[in-house]
């Protein structure tokens, strides 16, 4: 931007300093500029410095303003730093110091020469100055020439003896020099006068307002600079027809969408035809705070009271107490985190604050900022009367809800825990297991003998010895008195340790809290539920994975929390020919949710022989298939391992291969052929190498009968031979 005649100050300063002074200062009176220092919204601010840079200036001239930076203090003192560049590229630095009384001193901070000064002047002034200088120089030459001629004439007269009239040469020289000084003084004085006039004109242009601005500055006590800011933005203007103040509301793209008139001579308010109430008078800042007001004048008054960094904040006038503009603003600025409701201190304002706070999302902090008088303009007008600048009180209406975080378990923090077994590898503690089979094939009998082994210490095959413990046996198919108790007695169970949850009034389900309570209260370590489908619940379709999986997940958590083994007994479907894991009744997710899956079925060629197969084992290698006899005169008794898979058993196709017992008998006969005598421990070792367990070897020895001979040697060792 260019400044007309501002160079006059530079000219006058330099001329009065002798054309090459390193610094120049003068003092003059100037009205102190008051910059109110006010607190922040939440707590009082004690900073008393206001920095600002000048706005654009329009007059054309010979200088370009590079910097015009102000630092104003609340006591009226301050500094102004000005940088100027001339057309010829010369740079000038001015510093203006202003004290609290309004007196100011101007410092010209760099050396200049006559060429610099001429470049600052208007062309006609420079030409006049140059002509005047040339005329003065010519006059000086003429004077010097006249002196030389007078001197020469005097010398000639003296030589001829003639007497000449005497002339006061000092006076003549002084007169000539005085003329030059007068010219310089006139130039300096004219330059200073021009600079003063230019500064006054600039200040007048800066503070020149539309006629309605007098209403805002004089009656409403708003500062001219604040009003000018919004006038320059086009957000405040004067209605030419009625001379009302008009406040403009814009959308996020800056397009006018709302206008409201305010009378300056009488109380009058009216929205323009077609105005959209959702777009109120506002200032959009850069931070994440929004201050909300009823009227534009309240908004401006608040800024006047608390000016520090105000352009960074967001301000919105509702044009009343409706929430339309607030909702629209937040839809444009979803990043807003704090909202301050600065509505009037009356019933309408209080009610609106509560209503608006309820409309805001829970992620936003809402604070009520209540003025100490009816509204913010009243506070501004009477602020001198308010003690200690206690302009408001704040009330927190809503704290933002803390976002829910995902609970994470770091594997490095997980404690290693070994798997505990009730019956390894068939039945682990703290996990779910399932036993499936067709009706009448021995599932319940097996469950009774399992319960007996846990309560009386009579172990199952390959079961490690443990202290007896309580068992919860829950059945929906057999009567407790006529079926369950007689079979438990037959199995030799300790009936005091076998418990049943009474669900005669409320049907028990797998999701029932009573299961976990009963486990904890009775220190039970095994729960048997027979059958699964009877305890899923009336509204659960066991064929739907999305309904079954959550139930089994919760039940598995119960088992893990309590350390209790939970065995679920289920039936098979009728889909013959499918793989064993798909034969269970209901969704395949039942088999997927448990850690161990077992099947019980009959042998086709021997209906009294039942086989327990271990089809799935997530925590250890699957166990061997075990045979037990049921239905003959001997009742329930374990036979031993049986070489058959679940698929073979369920399909009814028995493998054409020797049983483990027969393999053991053949091995013994081979080892003892030719009358050899072999230690018992060597027979067991050879059998184990072929996958034949020790129990099966003992069964084979028993079946060989009298053909197998034995004796004790070396004190304790047993040796076998055959005759």
Cα-to-Cα separation, first versus last residue: 128 Å
Ranges where pLDDT stays below 50 over 5 or more residues in a row are 1-60, 162-193
Biggest sheet statistics:
9 strands, mixed
The chain-level structural class is alpha+beta
Spatial strand order of the main sheet: 22-21-23-24-20-25-26-27-28
**What is the typical, i.e. mean, pLDDT?**
80
> What best-fitting shape do the alpha-carbon axes yield?
elongated
Assembly state here? single chain
Q: How many distinct beta strands?
A: 31
Number of helix segments?
A: 19
Q: What does this entry look like structurally?
A:
With 723 residues, this protein is of the alpha+beta class. It is built from 19 helices and 31 strands. The strands form 6 sheets. Strands 22-21-23-24-20-25-26-27-28 form a 9-stranded mixed β-sheet, sandwiched between helices. Strands 1, 2, 3, 4, 5, 6 and 7 form a 7-stranded antiparallel β-sheet that branches. Helix 12 (480-491) links the parallel strand 21 (470-475) and strand 22 (498-499). The longest helix has 39 residues, at 169-207. The chain starts with a strand and ends with a strand. The model is unreliable at 1-60 and 162-193 (pLDDT under 50).
Give me a quick take on this structure:
The protein is α+β, with helices and mostly antiparallel strands.
């Amino acid at each position: 931007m260019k400044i007309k005649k501002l160079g006059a100050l530079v000219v006058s300063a330099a001329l009065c300093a002798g054309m090459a002074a390193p610094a120049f200062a003068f003092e003059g009176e100037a009205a102190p500029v008051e910059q109110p220092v006010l607190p922040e919204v939440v707590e009082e601010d004690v900073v008393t410095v206001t920095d600002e840079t000048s706005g654009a200036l329009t007059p054309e001239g010979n200088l370009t303003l590079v910097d015009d930076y102000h630092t104003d203090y609340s006591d009226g003192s301050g500094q102004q730093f000005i940088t100027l560049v001339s057309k010829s590229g010369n740079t000038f630095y001015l510093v203006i110091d202003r004290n609290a009384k309004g007196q100011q001193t101007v410092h010209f901070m760099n050396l200049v020469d006559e060429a610099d000064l001429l470049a600052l002047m208007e062309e006609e002034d420079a030409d006049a100055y140059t002509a005047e200088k040339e005329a003065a120089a010519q006059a000086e030459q003429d004077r010097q020439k006249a002196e030389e001629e007078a001197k020469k004439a005097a010398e000639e007269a003296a030589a001829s003896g003639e007497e000449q009239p005497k002339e006061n040469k000092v006076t003549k020289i002084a007169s000539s020099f005085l003329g030059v000084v007068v010219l310089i003084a006139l130039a300096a004085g004219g330059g200073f006068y021009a600079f003063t006039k230019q500064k006054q004109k600039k200040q007048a242009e800066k503070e020149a307002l539309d006629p309605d601005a007098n209403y805002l500055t004089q009656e409403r006590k708003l500062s001219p600079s604040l009003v000018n800011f919004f006038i320059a933005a086009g957000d405040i203007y004067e209605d030419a027809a009625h001379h009302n103040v008009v406040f403009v509301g814009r959308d996020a793209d800056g397009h006018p969408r709302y206008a409201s008139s305010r009378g300056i001579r009488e109380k009058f308010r009216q929205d323009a035809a077609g105005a959209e109430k959702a777009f109120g008078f506002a200032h959009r800042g850069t931070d994440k705070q929004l201050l909300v007001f009823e009227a534009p004048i309240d908004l401006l008054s608040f800024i006047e009271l608390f000016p520090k960094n105000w352009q960074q904040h967001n301000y919105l006038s509702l044009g009343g107490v409706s929430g339309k503009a607030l909702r629209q603003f937040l839809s444009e600025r979803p990043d807003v985190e704090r909202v301050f409701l600065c509505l009037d201190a009356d019933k309408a304002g209080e009610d609106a604050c509560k209503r608006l706070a309820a409309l805001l999302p829970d992620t936003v902090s809402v604070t009520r900022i209540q003025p100490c008088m009816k509204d913010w303009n009243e506070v501004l007008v009477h602020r001198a009367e308010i003690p200690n600048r206690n302009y408001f009180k704040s009330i927190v209406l809503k704290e933002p809800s803390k976002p829910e975080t995902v609970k994470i378990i770091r594997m490095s923090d997980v404690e290693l825990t070994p798997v505990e077994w009730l019956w390894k590898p068939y039945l682990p503690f703290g996990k779910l297991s399932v036993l499936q089979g067709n009706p009448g094939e021995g599932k319940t009998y097996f469950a009774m003998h399992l319960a007996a082994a846990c309560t009386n210490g009579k172990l199952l095959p390959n079961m490690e010895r443990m202290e007896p413990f309580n068992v919860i046996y829950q059945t929906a198919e057999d009567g407790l008195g006529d079926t369950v108790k007689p079979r438990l007695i037959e199995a030799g169970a300790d009936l005091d340790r076998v418990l049943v949850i009474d669900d005669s009034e409320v049907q028990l389900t797998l999701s029932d809290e009573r299961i976990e309570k009963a486990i904890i209260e009775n220190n039970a370590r095994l729960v048997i539920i027979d059958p699964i489908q009877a305890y899923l619940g009336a509204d659960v379709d066991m064929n739907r994975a999305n309904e079954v999986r959550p139930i089994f997940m919760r039940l598995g958590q119960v088992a893990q929390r309590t350390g209790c083994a939970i065995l679920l007994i289920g039936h098979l479907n009728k889909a013959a020919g499918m793989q064993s894991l798909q034969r269970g009744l209901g969704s395949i997710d039942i088999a997927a949710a448990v850690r161990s899956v077992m099947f019980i079925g009959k042998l086709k060629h021997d209906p009294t022989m039942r086989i327990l197969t271990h089809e799935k084992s997530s925590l250890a290698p699957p166990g061997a298939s075990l045979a037990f006899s049921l239905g003959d005169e001997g009742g329930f008794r374990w036979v031993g391992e049986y070489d058959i898979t679940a698929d073979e058993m369920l399909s009814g196709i028995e493998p054409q291969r020797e049983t483990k017992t027969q393999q053991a008998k053949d091995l013994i006969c081979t080892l003892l052929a030719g009358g050899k005598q072999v230690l018992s421990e060597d027979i067991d070792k050879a059998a184990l190498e072929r996958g034949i367990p020790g129990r099966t070897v003992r069964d084979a020895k028993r079946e060989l009968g009298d053909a197998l001979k034995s004796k004790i040697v070396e004190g304790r060792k047993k040796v076998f031979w055959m005759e």
